[in-house]
């Protein structure tokens, strides 16, 4: 028997109750029954994002919401700054350039976080910059960027937006949209929201909505003003992802029962346990500055083929982890602690890595990483 464990930074595991609720008979999306479910889901998103603004639910992947953020607020030849520190920073560049936007970058070594003072220095020299694009959590490098500090830089600039790809940070790190002054926050269903892929969520500040009034870039399906008009009536402009939104309501209920701040704390503790475990095994962390609480990246021993290692754990052991991308392919391992993930998922992942490393000839001591993780996780064990 091969029991499978999905411990990748997206898609993530889906709770049994969510799967059951999504498997119920289909309902029509233009009915009071669906509108009530949709309303509850949207109100729940406000609590996760800590905002009084209106989160919009799109039937797309997170990349669709990234494109929507660009085409709804900017114009051709506008100047923007992209924090380029991984695969998804590169995606911001490609989207902006597709629409004729002039892109400048702060280029980071993979594994490094941007410094808010560097962004401020750039904006002081380039006050005509219309937006700063950044990942909250850069999934390819398992780095967190200092969103709160970046928002403090842009908050009082009336014509400069802070646009945050929160696809693997929203629902993981405490992200205070209103209090911090974020202008656009996006995320996707298949990460912390414990759903299959297919939904994206996007929230705009009043500053961003004001810029939407002067945006002339082409948009039809991703016209957020059209979506807002409809979603304020608890419906969607186009056909809704009905089953996914039913599942989203269940997820929101689960998050509220756990406590939104407890959700953030759970991610933080499992992340720290994982980091301590890989360090105990003598593996070097990829993130140099601010590690993400969504996933931990570490370098594998040089004599181990990372692609073969990931394939072995997945195909022979049932443990799906993630490898590296681009120049890090075959060199690193990325271990998720994201979404439907608890202490014993962390222990499972670490024990599988230990056993796999030993099988591949690494000189490690079995149980050392597990013990390091257990020391962190013991503080969260329930009382007898």
- Class per helix and strand makeup: alpha/beta
Task: Please write the CATH class name of the largest domain.
Answer: Alpha Beta
The CATH homologous superfamily of the largest domain is termed Type I PLP-dependent aspartate aminotransferase-like (Major domain)
**Number of individual domains:** 2
- The N- to C-terminal Cα distance equals 34 Å
CATH-defined fold name of the largest domain = Aspartate Aminotransferase, domain 2
- Give the number of DSSP strands: 13
Give the helices and strands as they follow along the chain.
EHHEHEHEHEEEHEHEEHHHHEHEEHH
Strand order of the largest sheet: 2-10-9-8-5-3-4
Main beta-sheet strand count, sense and barrel state: 7 strands, mixed
Please tally the helical runs, counting DSSP H or I stretches of 4 or more residues: 14
What are the segments in which pLDDT stays under 50 over at least 5 consecutive residues? none
Instruction: Classify the beta-strand content into a percent band.
Output: 5-15%
Helix content percent band: 40-55%
Shape: globular
Gyration radius, in Å: 21 Å
Can you tell me the CATH architecture of the largest domain? 3-Layer(aba) Sandwich
Question: Can you give a write-up of this model?
Answer:
By secondary structure, this protein is α/β, with parallel strands linked by helices. 42% of the residues lie in helices and 14% in strands. The protein has two domains: 5-11 and 259-380, Aspartate Aminotransferase, domain 1; 16-257, 3-Layer(aba) Sandwich (Aspartate Aminotransferase, domain 2). Strands 2-10-9-8-5-3-4 form a seven-stranded mixed β-sheet, sandwiched between helices. Strands 1-12 form a two-stranded parallel sheet. Strands 6-7 form a two-stranded antiparallel ribbon. Helix 5 runs parallel beside helix 6 (147-154). The longest helix is centred in the C-terminal third of the chain and has 21 residues, at 260-280. It starts with a strand and ends in a 7-residue tail after the last helix. The model has no long low-confidence stretch (mean pLDDT 97).
């Amino acid at each position: 028997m091969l029991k499978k464990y999905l411990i990748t930074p997206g898609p993530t595991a889906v709770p049994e109750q969510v799967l059951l609720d999504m498997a119920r008979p289909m309902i029509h999306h233009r009915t009071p029954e669906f509108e009530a479910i949709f309303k509850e889901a949207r109100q729940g998103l406000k609590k996760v994002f800590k905002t009084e603004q209106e989160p919009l639910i799109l039937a797309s992947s997170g990349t669709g919401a990234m494109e929507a953020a660009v085409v709804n607020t900017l114009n051709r030849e506008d100047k923007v700054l992209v924090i380029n520190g991984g695969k998804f920073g590169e995606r911001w560049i490609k989207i902006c350039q597709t629409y004729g936007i002039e892109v400048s970058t702060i280029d980071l070594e993979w594994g490094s976080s941007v410094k808010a003072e560097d962004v401020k220095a750039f904006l002081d020299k380039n006050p005509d910059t219309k937006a700063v694009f950044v990942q909250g959590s850069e999934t390819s490098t398992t780095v967190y960027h200092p969103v709160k500090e970046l928002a403090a830089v842009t908050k009082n600039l009336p014509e400069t937006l802070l646009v945050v790809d929160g696809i693997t940070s929203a629902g993981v790190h405490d992200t205070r949209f209103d209090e911090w002054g974020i202008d656009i926050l996006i995320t996707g269903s298949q990460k912390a929201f414990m759903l299959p892929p297919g939904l994206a969520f996007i929230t705009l500040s009043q500053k961003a909505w004001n810029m939407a009034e002067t945006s002339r870039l082409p948009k039809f399906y991703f016209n957020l003003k059209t979506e807002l008009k409809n979603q304020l009536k608890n419906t969607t402009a186009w056909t809704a992802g009905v089953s996914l939104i039913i599942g989203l309501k269940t997820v929101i209920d689960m998050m509220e029962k756990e406590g939104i701040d407890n959700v953030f704390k759970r991610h933080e503790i499992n992340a720290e346990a994982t980091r301590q475990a890989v360090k105990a095994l003598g593996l070097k962390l990829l993130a140099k500055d601010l590690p993400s609480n969504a996933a931990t990246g570490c370098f594998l021993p040089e004599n181990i083929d990372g692609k073969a290692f990931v394939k072995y754990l997945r195909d022979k052991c049932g443990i799906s982890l993630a490898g590296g991308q681009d120049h890090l392919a075959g060199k690193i391992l990325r271990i998720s602690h994201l979404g439907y993930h608890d202490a014993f998922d962390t222990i499972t992942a670490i024990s599988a890595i230990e056993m796999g490393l030993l099988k591949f000839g690494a000189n490690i001591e079995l149980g050392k990483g597990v013990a390091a993780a257990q020391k962190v996780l013991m503080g969260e064990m329930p009382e007898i």
